[in-house]
Each structure stands twice: as C-alpha cells, then as structure tokens.
UniProtKB/TrEMBL annotation:
InterPro entries in UniProt: CNF-like_PLA2_Inhibitor, Snake_toxin-like_sf
Record carries keyword Signal: yes
Principal subcellular localization: secreted
Keywords annotated in UniProt: Secreted, Signal
Signal peptide positions on this chain: 1-22
Highest taxon in the source lineage: Eukaryota
Listed GO CC annotations: extracellular region
Subcellular location: Secreted
Keyword Transmembrane helix recorded: no
Organism from which the protein derives: Ignelater luminosus
Name this protein carries in UniProt: Uncharacterized protein
Length: 149
C-alpha cells in the first residue's frame, strides 16, 4: 500500500510537470516598435494556449488627426492555434505593405519565445524568390543563346 507522503509527492511532481509544459511568449500591445516592452515582457501562457501571435500594423496614430505621420505598431500575445488561424485569415487581406495605406499583418508560431522577431514580409518572400529565380533563368538563357534557332 502507498503511504500518504509518497502519494502527495507524486501529485506535486505531476502538477509541476504539467505547469512547466506551458508555452512562454513575448507580450506587448500597440508599441511603436519591436523593442523595450515587446522584447522584455514574457508571460507563461494558459494551458490551452499553444501558439504565440504577433501582429504588426502600419498606420496613423490611434486617434486620427489631419496630416498625422504613419508608423508601425507591434502587438504580441498568447493564443490558441485555432484562434490565431481565424484571426490571420480575417486580417491577411489587409496585409498589403503599401506605404500610403493602413495595413495589418500577423504571424503565429509555436515554441517558447518564438515571437521575438516580427516577420512582416511572410507573404512577399515567396514572390521575391520567384522573381530571383526568373531573373536567373533569363540570364542563363540569354548567356547561352538557347532561344536562337
């Protein structure tokens, strides 16, 4: 038969293992850049929150004033994978990176403190690689005159 002190030790060990499996994310809300608070504030997420969500937006100050300068705003938080995917799909049409328009992009990542960096060009990197490969192909074809008959 198991004595009560051994039973309580097992319970404490199981609880501490369960708590230590929680994700850690950087958190901040509408900061003007990815510095200071966004890089120094870390929270342990709730048990059900399994991803870190990062958001970057470009626009004028929250209270619109005529002629206000546009700037970046960074927000980071814990989220569930499903909630993050829903949020991303709702705002990604706004992820244009057009300097004269307000835009907003988001990214979800999995792993402790994975949202240290803000990756705002995720949708544009594949087109950049495609453009680079196309340019390389044109250079090769013109170098060896493949199109000549």
């Amino acid at each position: 038969m198991i004595n009560s002190s051994a039973f309580f030790c097992c319970i404490i060990i199981l609880i501490s293992i369960n708590i230590s499996n929680c994700l850690e994310c950087y958190v901040c809300d509408n900061q003007e850049d990815n510095a200071e608070k966004c890089l120094n504030t870390i929270v342990t997420c709730e048990q059900e929150e399994d991803v870190c969500l990062s958001e970057i937006s470009w626009g004028s100050t929250p209270y619109w004033t005529f002629g206000a300068a546009k700037q970046y705003y960074v927000s980071k938080r814990c989220s569930t994978k499903e909630r993050c995917a829903r949020y991303r799909s709702s705002i990604m049409p706004l992820c244009t990176h057009i300097w004269y328009q307000d835009w907003k992009c988001s990214e979800c990542c999995k792993g402790d403190r994975c949202n240290y960096y803000i990756i705002s060009a995720a949708n544009h990197s594949s087109s950049g690689i495609g453009m680079m490969l196309s340019s390389l192909a044109v250079l090769i074809f013109t170098k060896w005159n493949i199109f000549e008959a």
